[in-house]
Amino acid sequence: MREPIPVTVLTGFLGAGKTTLLKHILQAEHGLKIAVIENEFSALDVDGELLEDAGAVQLMKVANGCVCCTGSKDLAYALTVLLERLDSGELDFERLVVECTGLADPGPVAQTFFTDDLLRERYLLDGVLTLVDAVHASEQLSDPLLQAQIGFADRLLLTKLDLAEPAAVEALENRLQRINRRAPIRHVDHGRIELAELLDIRGFNLHDEDLAPPTLFRPLRPVSEAVSLTERIQSIAIRESRPYDQDKIGKVMEMLLDTLGCDLLRYKGLLNIAGEDRRLLFQGVQQIYAADWERDWLPGEERESRVVLIGMDLPEDRIRAAFERAVAKA
């Protein structure tokens, strides 16, 4: 049986430099066989011509508009066709990059890899990379679409840094951290960045030993009221040293999915369950949710639950109160 094909989703607002980065990925001396699904929003296929000589195994256009507008049926079809061509020997590739249009919500793209049995078996969603234009982001961040793209990200990649003032870049990084605390920020120099920063990041891997590194909860500088009022996407980090009641925490997750729906973009956590020697890992993309028992807690290891939720207009007080009620009684 073939190993699942790692998938990288490349997103970012219009003009952030996705095509330039994609050309770098395809042309770098890495020896990898990479297929590309390109989602072109306009009828004029500009990016296709830019990329046609970049070394992609296969360049497929998702028909007529962005994935989020068409549902994800076109993307699912393109993914299936690639598998058919791979299995028949017509194509040979070992990784896949899905480049989203700047007008695409990455949520439906990510969900595609969890809602179809064949795609879930044959593909492994490795991570969502969001490019952010360091020159124009301060104005663009008032757009909920860009905030959603940032909220979904496993890596935030800053571009056009040579054109931005250092003080503005520092302020932007602080603002991005407030929106998405779990995504490391990396700098891209004219499309160039170490591939190790882009591939094998295990953003959707339930068996990730490094679920919540210490940097995830680093203190953030306060932002002005004028900035905070424009940001609808925020991240909530919860740490709890007391064990959770399994039934109660399950009801908390059901409540979150039922009441918040698609406003809950990404969430991931490690839970300490009362009376259980194993660690419970969970993660979700909007209303697609999965949980799995992992290894035993190690002797001397701190049994601490760590949860990160990223979403739009999240009722933080109500969420924290719900998790508090789920703590097991002593």
Automatic annotation (TrEMBL):
Report if keyword Chaperone is assigned. Answer: yes
One Pfam family in the UniProt entry? CobW_C
- The catalytic activity of this protein is classed by the Enzyme Commission as 3.6.5.-
Question: What keywords are annotated for this sequence in UniProt?
Answer: Chaperone, Hydrolase, Nucleotide-binding
* SMART domains given in the database record: CobW_C
According to its UniProt record, this protein's enzyme class is hydrolase
Q: What GO MF annotations does this protein's record show?
A: hydrolase activity
Q: Does the keyword Nucleotide-binding apply?
A: yes
Known catalytic reactions? GTP + H2O = GDP + phosphate + H(+)
Q: Which residues form the CobW C-terminal domain?
A: 233-327
Specify the superkingdom: Bacteria
Q: What does this protein do?
A: Zinc chaperone that directly transfers zinc cofactor to target proteins, thereby activating them. Zinc is transferred from the CXCC motif in the GTPase domain to the zinc binding site in target proteins in a process requiring GTP hydrolysis.
Q: Name the family the entry cites.
A: Belongs to the SIMIBI class G3E GTPase family. ZNG1 subfamily.
This protein is called GTPase
Tell me the organism: Pseudomonas benzopyrenica
